[in-house]
Automatic annotation (TrEMBL):
This is Calcium/sodium antiporter. One of its GO terms (molecular function) is calcium channel activity. It is a multi-pass membrane protein. The chain crosses the membrane at residues 71-94, 106-122, 128-146, 167-186, 192-211, 232-256, 268-287, 294-312. Keywords: Membrane, Transmembrane, Transmembrane helix. One of its GO terms (biological process) is intracellular calcium ion homeostasis.
Length: 314
């Protein structure tokens, strides 16, 4: 029973993170709308942060416990999971249309953010000032997204309407459950790592990364099933940008990190490589194909590369 308890804590943490992140986002978005803030702005801020909330809370929790390597693993592993697992599975369910502005604007910005993070991680150390730069980049990113999406308001998700009192209850309940779930997940994951003799970094890259990517997976699959294929790629790209800036930046602010060489040469370069593969696939499909979408063949390729990364880790 003692051996199974950490695994139960991990499972309970996963379930709680998915449920509470949804409640927190819906509640806070409804409160903001009821206060007179436009749905467009709320959709670009509250909702955009929504699927990255589990990673952010886990990042803070693990950093405060001195497990910053788990937080960095979570940031890089979640981005790998978003592209390899989430987009891979979603593309198998339905073709994902490629928007011109996504390819010409959002993809270059994502690659620029990845390049900045790579420069900071190259020396295997993430200092306080580097973490501050990453976090401070969030504000201009949101401003740029708002400007970009003014021409494409249909790509901002709908916001559920509810009374302020109801929204406040869901917000507070979601926030409390999110914190408790993150604590459960971090404790369970670090205990499992200790018992199996593996590092917190590897646990963050694998178990925790997949668990905190569940909201993205659920959102993308439901969007594909409902026929809202046009927002899947944009959601993943946005989530990956926030993951790098916040989930990797916050731990360095709480406590500067010194990492092993694998973080850059294995994990970061794998994330960069998968991002480049996605970019090349989108360019080829957009300019040299009549369909202009990410299809099943690309989905299979992304899943195979993601499986290959796991082989590299273990």
């Amino acid at each position: 029973m003692t051996v199974l308890l950490p695994w139960f804590a991990v499972l309970l943490g996963f379930i709680g993170l998915v449920w509470s992140a949804d409640r927190l986002v819906n509640g806070s978005a409804a409160i903001a709308c009821n206060l007179g803030i436009s749905k467009f702005i709320v959709g670009l801020t509250v909702v955009a942060f929504g699927t990255s909330t589990p990673e952010i809370i886990v990042s803070i929790s693990s950093s405060l416990k001195g497990s910053g390597d788990l937080a960095i693993g979570n940031a890089l592993g979640s981005n790998l999971a978003n592209i390899g697992l989430v987009l891979g599975i979603t593309a198998l369910i339905a073709p994902l249309p490629i928007k011109s502005h996504t390819l010409k604007q959002e993809i270059p910005i994502m690659l620029l953010i990845i390049a900045i993070a790579g420069y900071f991680l190259y020396d295997w150390h993430l200092a306080l000032w580097e973490g501050l730069i990453l976090v401070l980049c969030v504000a201009p990113l949101i401003i740029w997204l708002a400007h970009s999406h003014k021409q494409h308001p249909e790509e901002v998700e709908d916001i559920e309407s509810m009374k302020t009192s109801t929204a406040t209850v869901w917000f507070l309940l979601g926030l409390c459950c999110l914190i408790i779930s993150a604590e459960s997940l971090v404790w369970g994951a670090t205990t499992v790592a200790l018992s199996l003799g593996i590092s917190n970094l590897v646990v963050g890259l694998t178990i925790v990364a997949i668990g905190t990517s569940l909201p993205e997976l659920a959102t993308s699959i439901m969007s594909a099933i409902k026929g809202h294929h046009d927002i899947a790629i944009g959601n993943i790209i946005g989530s990956n940008m926030f993951n790098i800036l916040l989930v990797a930046g916050i731990p360095a602010i709480i406590q500067p990190l010194t990492m092993t060489a694998e973080v850059f040469f294995r994990d970061f370069l794998s994330m960069l490589g998968l991002s480049i593969v996605l970019t090349i696939s989108m360019v080829l499909s957009f300019y040299f194909s009549k369909n202009q979408h990410i299809g099943r063949l690309t989905g299979v390729l992304l899943l195979l590369l993601y499986a290959g990364y796991y082989t590299l880790v273990f």
